[in-house]
């Protein structure tokens, strides 16, 4: 089985609007998140479950955000997903490794899970959750998190939480996490600015809520053409050498090679 690829610019689609799926799959996002939670009112959740059964095949992975573990809809979501499983499951309000175990037991260890940290309890459990074998990467739901702790949702108020999530992801040997959504979608500079801050802190991508956010976010998380060309030259320089080599007047050692490999991987993943 091909290992799942970490996400960088996944796009949410409300579960009761399945007619948007095909367009979202061709939008340039690297995954489509079929939302059963916040974007879907209780009255529309049965229709969203039905839409899961008749969803089209997409060129990118389909991720389903179920309702939270403590929601009365969680068990119904799991029953619906069992009939036609997605490629990944996004678990909101994740607060315990036990929540992850329930999903892994039902769908098997090969089902990638992306827990979203949205509360103080979730942040307190982040290090343990990042050791779970089914976790691909995690995400930060900064709006719900700030509400839970009584903080301002602006960037400067949440440095500690973001930093802890990044470090926990690295210690758990998981992919870099996804930052929370930008609520503005009609201003590319705002989206790009938030994405740059997240990238510079160690995040590997950002949750998106509108197609207009894809291009500015992707431009940030995808390495530049110049970086990609440099990385290719690094790999060419070391291809036939077992010893240290020089490139552009600098030594090419193991950290440089690893950086080049990461640039090539990230560039080609968001091509």
* Low-confidence region ranges: none
- Which strands sit side by side, in order, in the main sheet? 1-2-3-4-5-6
Q: Percent of residues in helical segments? A: 40-55%
CATH superfamily of the largest domain: Phosphoenolpyruvate-binding domains
Q: How many domains, in number, for the residues? A: 2
- In CATH, the topology of the largest domain is named TIM Barrel
Query: Order of helices and strands, N to C?
Result: EHEHEHEHEHHEHHEHEHHEEH
Give the class-level CATH name of the largest domain. Alpha Beta
CATH architecture of the largest domain: Alpha-Beta Barrel
- The helix-and-strand class reads alpha/beta
Measured between the Cα atoms of the first and last residue, the distance is 23 Å
Shape: globular
Description:
With 271 residues, the protein is an alpha/beta fold. It has 2 domains: 10-221, Phosphoenolpyruvate-binding domains (TIM Barrel, Alpha-Beta Barrel), CATH 3.20.20.60; 225-269, no CATH class. The chain contains 12 helices and 10 strands. It has helices spanning 21-25, 45-53, 74-83, 97-107, 120-124, 126-129, 142-149, 159-171, 188-201, 214-221, 225-238, 254-269, and strands spanning 10-14, 31-35, 62-65, 88-91, 113-117, 139-140, 178-179, 205-206, 245-247, 250-252. The strands form 3 sheets. A 6-stranded parallel β-sheet has the order 1-2-3-4-5-6.
